[in-house]
Design brief:
Blueprint lengths: L1 H23 L2 H13 L3 E6 L4 E4 L1 H7 L11 H5 L1 H15 L4 E8 L2 E11 L5 E10 L1 H43 L3 H15 L4 E7 L7 E7 L4 H7 L13 H8 L3 E3 L20 E9 L2 E10 L7 H39 L9 H18 L3 E8 L2 H8 L1 H18 L5 E6 L2 E7 L3 H16 L2 E3 L2 E3 L3 E8 L6 H17 L4 E3 L5 H19 L3 E10 L4 E13 L3 E3 L5 H7 L2 H21 L6 E5 L1 H4 L4 H11 L7 E6 H6 L1 H13 L4 E6 L6 H4 L6 E4 L1 H4 L6 H16 L3 E5 L4 H9 L4 E3 L7 E2 H15 L1
Parallel strand pairs: 16-17, 19-21, 21-22, 22-23, 23-24, 24-25, 25-26
Antiparallel strand pairs: 1-2, 1-5, 3-4, 4-5, 6-7, 6-10, 8-9, 9-10, 11-13, 11-16, 12-13, 14-15, 18-19, 18-26, 18-27, 19-20
The structure holds ligand C2E and calcium ion (CA) (2 copies).
């Protein structure tokens, strides 16, 4: 451009020089200079005050009058033509008034000329004409236009780039807001803030739809509006298709699509809000779809028109979708929490007493272990079992049993310390966790609880006396995990029961015993395989006739180092190590051998084998039993089985199936340790069993405790009612025997008759017993 101007200036000087000469010189010089003027790349003309050409060079003529022979003497208007003349007449007039004129002119399409009019003064300084100097700048103009176009494109791209990076920044700030949000309002607030403060947009707003008749919108959050949230709320708007529903937000909600208005000031749809929203020139809004429903929209406003490019729109759409996703997951989380809370109530509390149930109590126990471990504190776990609840259920009905349980729970709760946690573990088993408690405090608490249970319970107007055994285990002495604590507290309860006392603190196995247990666990397999086990037999006597009815097989381990080891020391080891299967198989095979031998010798007696829970759950058990029975030649009924009540009641439906299977193989069945498993007689009625063995803990006390004798007596009566024979175990004295005889107990087993003895001694013993009777 600079060069064109310079060329122009140079030409002008040249033209002026030529003319001053032309005016003064003779004709030959005029021809000479005219030749020069025709050879410079410029349009040159001289026009007099009457606007008639006096001189034009060849180029001028070529541009404006290519068909005319000579244009000298013709008027400017004539040569240029009406239209072109009209565009320059103003400048001509100014030139003739003596003003230098300089302008770019496009007389023909695609042709640009840079024109100068230089007024020429006469002798008295009056304007007598003007010189015209023009140069063709079409090329320059074209380049300039191109550059301008390129610049515009560049600017557009930069703007686009900026808007995209602005949207990207907003998107990532929005995502951070999403990650941090814990509730819906703070998510909306921080999203609006991210859009304005990080993204640099003028304003952001979130509205939710109201389900009212006018379909109004409620402003939930905003950022950037100088008049604030209240002002936004005061603006009338709606998501209905009416005059207040034409803004980008309402349209986005209605159509469920993004709505962008690039020039709000020019958009007639936006007239309703123009005064309140004057700061914003462009707006974009997105629907917020949450859980399949459009709940509102988010609007983003910019202060410049045409602010939202297509790429930016895409990114902001993503932002809106992210927000909707965030809202969805927050709402789902809240719903889930609600459900979880309801579930927690359902699954963590016992419906009858309202106390925490065993799974929730285990959680509490775990928590106590955790915090006591950290603080180095101790706590006490108390378990208390209501005795003979099943009796009460049977006698008075379940409804009354439930009333009793509720009353018991209430007494337990009010007697326990405030800081204690009380729970119902199952059936008639309750637990109390006492934080920061040592042994003596726990015993004191246990006695307090006993006191609370000692008063009569009035159930259906019947005053009932209840007894409950209490076991105490301490953390960390008796266990550092729930499993060990539960086990030990349960052992304590059973010890209390066994010893016939109300309360018992767990006495953990001594370290020496522990190491012995480990040794035994390692050696048991070999003991089974190599025949170190022995069968001991204990007789069962038919009380009415005094005849030996049969025997119970009680296993012993003849250990090289420890001598005869009682089953109490290794049966649970066998149960925990899976060795109970080969052990029971061994016992059954041995018993079948004995039965076959006796049978051949003509002195057959039934022998009962004890069966563990694991045997019942062993799918192959029946098959193996069947094989063993078919190998040995033993009449049906000589092999009997005893299953403890608690094992049967653990899964009554399952037990029913398995017991039927055993019964079908001709095996008479006993319910062992009756009274410790809390079954109801109505349930037992369905079981395919023949005998009921009353647990020795009741028999032991029948002569001293009214309650025990009552229990034993009513158990015998009820068992007879449902067609079962009763065996009393643990019969140790004449008094026991006499009382049981009075209660019409069918069979007796116990030290009073005989201790369990090796098989070889048993037949001599039977002979002696019979001889003594006669
Ligand atoms: P259980 O089935 O209740 O067996 C009765 C237990 O009471 C036997 O203890 C027996 O010796 C004992 N006993 C019998 N009469 C009296 C008495 O008058 N007073 C007292 N205080 N106790 C008496 P044992 O032989 O030590 O067996 C303990 C437990 O071991 C048995 O209890 C039974 O559950 C289990 N057991 C024994 N042999 C086997 C077996 O072969 N398989 C399985 N699975 N368990 C067995
Ligand atoms: Ca038994
Ligand atoms: Ca027993």
């Amino acid at each position: 451009m600079t060069t064109t101007i310079l060329t122009g200036t140079f030409l002008l000087g040249l033209v002026l020089a030529i003319y001053s000469v032309l005016r003064r010189q003779a004709n030959d010089s005029e021809d000479h200079l005219s030749g020069i003027a025709n050879n410079v790349p410029a349009l040159i003309a001289y026009v007099n005050a009457q606007q008639h050409y006096e001189y034009v060079n060849d180029l001028y003529k070529k541009y404006f009058a290519p068909c005319m022979k000579d244009i000298r003497g013709h008027s400017v208007q004539q040569v240029l033509g009406q239209d072109r003349y009209a565009t320059v007449s103003q400048q001509i007039e100014s030139a003739l008034k003596g003003q230098l004129q300089h302008y770019d002119w496009m007389p023909f399409p695609d042709t640009w000329l840079a024109i100068q009019y230089v007024p020429r003064l006469g002798n008295r300084d009056e304007v007598i004409g003007y010189y015209v100097v023009g140069s063709d700048i079409s090329e320059r103009k074209r380049t300039e236009d191109q550059i301008q176009e390129l610049n515009a494109e560049l600017e557009r791209r930069i703007r686009l780039q900026e808007s995209v990076s602005r949207a990207l920044t907003t998107l990532s700030a929005g995502n951070r807001a999403l990650l941090r949000a814990t509730d819906e309002q703070s998510l909306l607030d921080s999203m609006c803030q991210a859009i304005v403060k990080v993204g640099g947009y003028a304003m952001a707003i979130v509205c939710y739809t109201n389900d009212d008749k006018d379909k109004t919108l409620r402003t939930m959050a905003e950022c950037g509006h100088s008049a604030g949230m209240e002002a936004l709320r005061a603006i009338k708007n709606s998501w209905a298709d009416n005059e207040y529903g034409r803004g980008p937000m309402a349209r986005a909600i209605r159509t469920e699509k993004v709505c962008v208005i690039q020039n709000l000031h020019a958009d007639p749809n936006y007239s309703a809000w123009r005064s309140d929203m004057a700061d914003y020139a462009a707006g974009i809004a997105f629907p917020l779809k949450v859980q399949g429903e459009t709940i509102g929209g988010i609007g983003i406003y910019a202060s410049q028109p045409d602010a939202f490019g297509p790429d930016e729109e895409k990114l902001l759409t993503e932002l809106a979708e992210d927000l909707a996703y965030g809202l969805t997951s927050l709402r789902e989380r809240i719903e889930k929490e609600k459900i979880e809370n309801a579930m927690h109530l359902l699954t963590s509390y016992d419906a009858l007493t309202g106390l925490p149930n065993s799974s929730y109590f285990t959680e509490l126990l775990n928590g106590a272990i955790h915090s006591c471990h950290a603080k180095g504190q101790s706590f006490a776990l108390i378990q208390t079992n209501i005795e003979r609840l099943s009796e009460i259920n049977d006698a008075l009905g379940f409804h009354q049993g439930d009333c009793l349980l509720r009353e018991f729970a209430e007494r337990l709760r009010s007697a326990a310390a405030n800081s204690a946690m009380v729970a119902r573990l199952r059936g008639d088993e309750f637990a109390v966790l006492i934080p920061e408690c040592d042994e003596s405090a726990a015993i004191l608490m246990g006695q307090q609880l006993q006191q609370a249970f000692s008063g009569r319970f009035l159930i259906a107007d019947i005053p009932l006396e209840l007894s409950a055994r209490i076991g105490i285990a301490l953390y960390p002495q008796h266990g550092t995990n729930p499993h060990d604590l539960y086990r030990n507290v349960d052992i304590a309860v059973h010890q209390a029961k066994k010893r016939g006392i109300g309360l018992c603190v767990c006495s953990p196995p001594k370290a020496r015993d522990q190491s012995r247990r480990l040794t035994l666990a390692g050696e048991l397999r070999r003991a089974i395989d190599e025949g170190d086990l022995r069968i001991y037999l204990q007789p069962k006597i038919h009380m009415a006739s005094g005849l030996v009815r049969g025997a119970e097989a009680l296993v012993r381990w003849k250990h090289a180092k420890y001598g005869i080891i009682p089953p109490g020391e290794f049966i649970d080891l066998a149960e925990h190590t899976g060795l109970i299967k080969p052990l029971t198989d061994w016992v059954i095979e041995a018993v079948l051998g004995i039965a076959q031998d006796w049978n051949e010798r003509g002195c057959a007696l039934p022998i009962a084998v004890n069966i563990s829970a694991r045997n019942l759950h062993d799918e192959d058990f029946e098959n193996r039993l069947h094989k063993l029975l078919s190998v040995k030649d033993v009449p049906v009924g000589l092999l009997e089985m005893e299953v403890t009540e608690s094992v049967i009641m653990e899964d009554a439906e399952f037990s029913l199936r398995v017991l039927h299977g055993l019964r079908n193989q001709g095996i008479p069945l006993y319910i062992d340790d009756f009274g410790t498993g809390y079954s109801s007689l109505s349930y037992l009625q369905k079981m395919p069993v023949d005998y009921l063995k009353i647990d020795q803990s009741f028999v032991r006390n029948i002569t001293t405790s009214k309650e025990s004798s009552l229990i034993v007596r009513s158990t015998i009566e009820l068992a007879h009612d449902i067609g079962l024979k009763v065996v009393a175990e643990g019969v140790e004295t004449q008094e026991h025997w006499d009382l049981l005889a009075q209660f019409k107990c069918d069979y007796s087993q116990g030290y009073f008759v005989a201790r369990p003895m090796p098989v070889e001694e048993f037949q001599d013993w039977v002979r002696l017993w019979d001889a003594r009777r006669n």
